[in-house]
Specification:
The chain contains three helices and no strands. It is mainly alpha-helical.
Length: 105
């Protein structure tokens, strides 16, 4: 018998607040949501969070009208990555790392 299970992905409050603060700096507070519905999707990041506090984020790439190929879920055969997200995501992660390193000093 083989039973494979994933740890629950549970963000820690301090790291979630930090990630949201950085996101607000990059894309504006009006574009950051911290009240999203819980998700039961499988994700191995939960195992990492058991070892070190952190925050798993969703970086939206869809459109407001929901009629773009970017609106399909990641595992859909119709999924099309929104290349316009690359500079936004790069800016977010650069800002996140720069500020996290300042906190460690």
């Amino acid at each position: 018998d083989y039973n494979f299970g994933l740890d629950a992905t549970v963000n820690t409050p301090k790291e979630t607040a930090f990630a949201a603060e950085i996101a607000a700096r990059v894309v504006g507070a009006e574009n950051v949501r911290t009240d999203t519905e819980l998700c039961m999707g499988g994700e191995d990041f939960g195992s990492f969070l058991r070892q070190k506090p952190g925050c798993y984020i969703f970086m939206g790439q869809g459109t407001k009208d929901g009629k773009s190929p970017h609106d399909y879920g990641l595992h859909s055969p119709f999924y099309d990555f929104n290349d316009d997200l690359i500079p936004v995501a790069s800016s977010y992660f650069a800002e996140l790392v720069e500020n996290a390193l300042k906190l460690e000093k």
